[in-house]
Amino acid sequence: MLDDRLAKLSDVQKQCIRLSGEGRSSKEIAPLVGLTHQTVDQYLHRARQALGAANRREAARILSEIENGRTFKRFEFKPKAVVEEPDSAIPAGPTEQDERASGLPGLPPIGGKPNDLTPGARLVAISKIALFILICGLAMTLLLKGAFVALS
Fold first, then answer.
1. pLDDT class of 86 with cuts at 50, 70, 90
2. CATH number belonging to the domain at 2-68, selected among 3.40.50.790, 1.10.10.10, 3.30.470.20, 1.10.3210.10
3. What CA–CA distances, in Å, run from 18 to 5, 44, 129?
4. pTM of the prediction?
């Protein structure tokens, strides 16, 4: 049954399917087989119909199974290992500046793992920040009031 489907395909159609199975687009396949990209699309469409495939990738899989006489392993192709870049923009650990900034009186440390505080510790940290903002606001208000009194 598979050989009947294969007999319906021309050599150019088979070549187009093989090239599309490599991940090439119709525009990339066209110069390799000496056709326009529209003609390549038509050849691939007719080949898909002849093989009973839903898309190009499935047509390439079916053709590979027929020609090689074995089933295609879905997870056979594995990506190369990802190499970490040694020069990252994100610092590996706390810097001197971070250590100095975290030493401000009463403020929580800068950085750290996300959500590393317990709910109670979060409330304490939020309260400290709110108190710091309140004190800064009051100081600014007193400064402005003193400036208006001095100017009037």
1. low
2. 1.10.10.10
3. 16, 10, 64
4. 0.45
